Amino acid sequence: MGMAITYVGIKGKPDADLLKSLEVNDAGSAGLDCDYENEIAGIAANENWYLLIKYGNGEALQRAELLAALSKNTRLVVSEVEEHVMFSASFGWENGREVWSIVHDSQAGEEHLAIKGAVPAGCAEIARFSLKKQEEENDCDYIFEIPIELARNIHGFRYDGNASGPDIAVNF
């Protein structure tokens, strides 16, 4: 069937009142222990990034007004994955507004990749790596990996734990 997940990497710890309003199950850095389908989990990805994770329907983490509030005076990276339709996307928000996005939707075409705004440096290297793998192994959708790997290289988290691209320093 495939996994469906939305996760938001927030640079620094988000406002406690916002977390409370979202009813986040704050796991700190101990690991995720929540009702994945019904709760939003919160966890420290590392010393610089805090993650909000929602399995299944991620609409609760995709509302523009919420993302604007979460990104006030900071940056965040929103990632959406729908494996069953080979859809992946990452969006960069800064100071209350979306500043870049990268989306792969295989239903729009096997090589579909829509980019808006100025994606962080390093995205081109990730794309080159994935496109090369796509050419070499045409039986897999490596373009699906580009938004996911960009987010991983920014905040260190990948939804399935399987890094599939180069480890590069991406600053956002």
Task: Note down, in words, how this protein is organized.
By secondary structure, this protein is α+β, with helices and mostly antiparallel strands. Helices cover 22% and strands 30% of the residues. The chain has an eight-stranded mixed beta sheet. The model has no long low-confidence stretch (mean pLDDT 87).
SSE topology sketch:
Blueprint: E1 4-11, H1 16-21, E2 24-26, E3 40-44, E4 49-55, H2 64-70, E5 75-82, E6 87-94, E7 97-105, E8 114-117, H3 123-136, H4 145-155
Parallel strand pairs: 2-3
Antiparallel strand pairs: 1-4, 1-5, 3-4, 5-6, 6-7, 7-8
Helix pairs in contact: 3-4
Helix count?
4
Computed structural class: alpha+beta
What string gives the helices and strands in order? EHEEEHEEEEHH
How would the global form be characterised? globular
Quick gist of this model?
Helix content is 22%, strand content 30%. It has helices at 16-21, 64-70, 123-136, 145-155, and strands spanning 4-11, 24-26, 40-44, 49-55, 75-82, 87-94, 97-105, 114-117.
Properties at a glance:
single chain, 172 residues, alpha+beta, eight-stranded mixed β-sheet, 4 helices, 8 strands
